Amino acid sequence: MKKLIPVIFACLLGCKDVDKAITTPVKVQNVPSHTSVIVLGNVQDAGSPHIACKKECCLELFQNPDDTRKVVSLGVVDPENNRKYLFDATPDMPEQLKILKNYLPKNVNETVDGIFLTHAHIGHYTGLMYLGTEAMGASNVNVFAMPVMDSYLRNNGPWSQLIGNQNISLQALKNKLEISLTSNLSVIPFLVPHRDEYSETVGYKIVGPNKTALFIPDIDKWHKWETNIADEIKQVDYAFLDAGFFSEEEIDNRDISEIPHPTVQESMELFAELPLKEKTKVWFIHMNHTNPMLNPESEQSKLVISKGYNIARFKNLFEL
To answer: Are 299 and 25 in contact (CB under 8 A)?
Structure first.
């Protein structure tokens, strides 16, 4: 079993040298020929525009929606073995599944070969509802979950109905235990501190034939984790990290202590002493609707890029 090393996602298709900074998102038009990660969403659980939001960040979007603003999810494809996987089942899952299928046209399944859940907050598991009788009526889709998440799905409706009707088949995960999916792909879940009302929370290390990626869309604060995230960045090729808020100034209508996340300002301060080649591995993801980094032209986006970091954008593709 490979040793678990939490890490961070960070590079586009064709990136051969992680020492080089990548500062602009690239649209990849071709179907990948190698095992790859695709960003299927970069927005926090409730999406953008956000329900009942009266701020400028949402008002225009209610009138003119941005089709690239999907809730955080990663797709992984292994063309050699004709397999595709989804990390987190979001409210945007119907379109995300269709997009993912386009990256693996030989895989005729309308669903995926497996779904890996991080935790029981609405943006990360409620997409499972589309697999049920009222929607797809899927058959035994593999859903990978940690023990508390597994128990939550089995003992609460409507999720228990998915199991009873054999729409999904739960597959057990254990902390730091590697799961081999194909000859080119394995996954290692690991616990992270977060608001665990209904389940534990995990991040994932995704191991390809040549590169590795870390996916941590949710964590309370880096200092609450027993692992040193700056050190872990050095061990991987890509690191997709929680970027809920750019700064605490964004939230003026709720107690931010009730929704703890590392701000991007905090993360950049923590990573400030890392060499540039390590900073370029960082791809910020899971942005709240108030986060100005959702706009590639914002001053905050440009600041993050100028410091050597990256921002995950819809359909960015990363070769493993």
So the answer is: no
Q: Does any domain span residue 15?
A: no
The total number of structural domains that make up the chain? 1
Q: Is 284 among the domain residues?
A: yes
Token duo for residue 79: 């063309």
Q: Give dist(CA 48, CA 113) in Å, integer.
A: 28
The low-confidence residues of the chain, meaning pLDDT below 50, are 1-28
Q: DSSP characters for 248-310?
A: GGG--SS-GGGS----HHHHHHHTTTS-HHHHTTEEEE-B-TT-GGGSTTSHHHHHHHHTT-E
Q: Is residue 28 part of a domain?
A: no
pLDDT tens-digit series, residues 177-187 = 999 999 999 99
Rg (CA), the chain: 18
What is the spatial distance between Cα 110 and Cα 15, in angstroms, rounded to a whole number? 30
d(CA 229, CA 232): 5
pLDDT at site 66: 76
Any idea what the CATH number is for the domain that residue 261 is in?
Answer: 3.60.15.10
The residue range of the domain holding 163 is 36-319
The answer to whether residue 244 sits within a structural domain is yes
pLDDT value for 196: 85
Q: What is the pLDDT of residue 90?
A: 97
pLDDT value at residue 48: 65
What is the value of pTM for the model shown? Answer: 0.86
